[in-house]
Give the backbone structure.
Amino acid sequence: LRCMSGEAARRSPTADRILRAAAELISLRGYSATSTREIAAAVGVEQPALYKHLSSKKEILAALVRLALE
């Protein structure tokens, strides 16, 4: 088992779902072509709900990069 970083341990289950959906969409379409609205739809939440968990599309990308580097 990998030990979770402090950041990963603090993320909510919804934030984890957002990151998984974002990773899939960005890998298929690219960062610029993926909207937060599409990410929200993939998770099954309204777009404003994303910002409760991650403050911006840039923060989503930064979280994905940090996860990849763990």
In short: The CA atoms of residues 23 and 65 lie 10 Å apart. The two ends are 13 Å apart (CA to CA). The chain has a mean pLDDT of 89.
